[in-house]
Amino acid sequence: MGKNARYLTLALAMAATGMLSAPAMAAEKTIGVTVPYFGSPFWKAGLYGVETAGKEKGYTVLKGDAKDKAEVQIEQIRSYIDKKVDAIIIGAADAAAVGPAVEEAIDKGIPVIALSVPPKSDRLTSFVGADNIGMGRLQGICLGRAIGGKGEVGLFAGPDEIWAKLRVTGFKNTMEADFPDIKIVAEKAGGTKDAGVAAVEWAKAHPEMHGIFTAADTMAVESINQLGASVEKIKVSTSNLNDDARTALENGKLTCASLQPAVAMGRDAAREAIAAIEGGKVLGRIEAPALLVTREKVAGYDFSKIIAPADYQP
């Protein structure tokens, strides 16, 4: 083989090697996501938003189900640190408990974006959340009008979490400002089962009660189920809309639900993460608008920004 032929062969080999190596050498961009519970329609929708927005920009999205356990979420965060992900998106299973692990990620230079439920840290890159006060206010307007602007209502405040407290604040402020003739005669905090117990107790103790505010959909469904026939005279409102709550709304057993656009929020969280990774403009805080759906509107309501497609599995 002549000298020129050998050079040509070498050049072709180098070019071929370069063509094969370039994609392999290109750094794969990865976002790690961890949320409290894949089974929740809200978190499923948020994950769908993150995943679709990430994939549109060529990112790999790793997903972790904390199964409502802080220790599981901590391990997921540390796994993402070990894998050297480019960003982490987290909906905290326990804000205080997972805070130190989040700080570890930040110390390693990984931007952390909070989705809906922020971990305890003052160094988050961004927070994407709902207007929970607005959600409570919309419930207040709906429930107040549904019972004719006067009478007695009960308030089930939900867990000792910031989102629930803000919804309660929005509801109470609305009652005070817009419905002075409505009196909150019973109030209780707790979980889903507690809501059903409270609803039955209130119906007996307050025969003139005509409305119940619940902080979240599972609590509304439990209240409706436990009230039985009594739900015909007691209007129940809630926030979020799982499948059972949606059925209750369609059947008229649930009066209305204030909503947060979970899919859109997930997409916003992914955009904030990608901006942080690529040196783009990070907004730092995004508050999604509160929405309202009633029985009259549910059949034709556009849920594309709120609920993941039925065939999506995280």
Cα end-to-end separation: 58 Å
CATH class of the largest domain: Alpha Beta
Helical coverage, percent range: 40-55%
The run of helices and strands is HEHEHEHEEHEHEHEHEHEHEEH
Main location: other
Organism: Aminobacter aminovorans (Chelatobacter heintzii)
Signal peptide: 1-26
Domain Periplasmic binding protein: 31-280
Reconstruct the topology from this structure:
Elements: H1 3-25, E1 30-35, H2 41-56, E2 60-65, H3 70-82, E3 87-90, H4 95-107, E4 112-115, E5 126-130, H5 132-146, E6 151-156, H6 162-178, E7 182-188, H7 192-205, E8 209-214, H8 217-227, E9 235-239, H9 243-250, E10 256-259, H10 262-278, E11 285-288, E12 291-294, H11 295-298
Helix pairs in contact: 2-10, 3-4, 5-6, 7-8
Would you mind describing this structure in some detail?
Helix content is 48%, strand content 19%. With 314 residues, the protein is an alpha/beta fold. Strand 3, helix 4 and strand 4 form a beta-alpha-beta unit. Mean pLDDT is 92; it is low at 3-26. It contains eleven helices and twelve strands. The protein has two domains: 30-130 and 261-287, Response regulator (Rossmann fold, 3-Layer(aba) Sandwich), CATH 3.40.50; 132-259, Rossmann fold, CATH 3.40.50. Strands 2-1-3-4-5-11 form a six-stranded parallel beta sheet, sandwiched between helices. It is elongated and about 65 Å long.
Short overview:
The chain has 314 residues and is of the alpha/beta class. The chain has helices at residues 3-25, 41-56, 70-82, 95-107, 132-146, 162-178, 192-205, 217-227, 243-250, 262-278, 295-298, and strands at 30-35, 60-65, 87-90, 112-115, 126-130, 151-156, 182-188, 209-214, 235-239, 256-259, 285-288, 291-294. It is elongated.
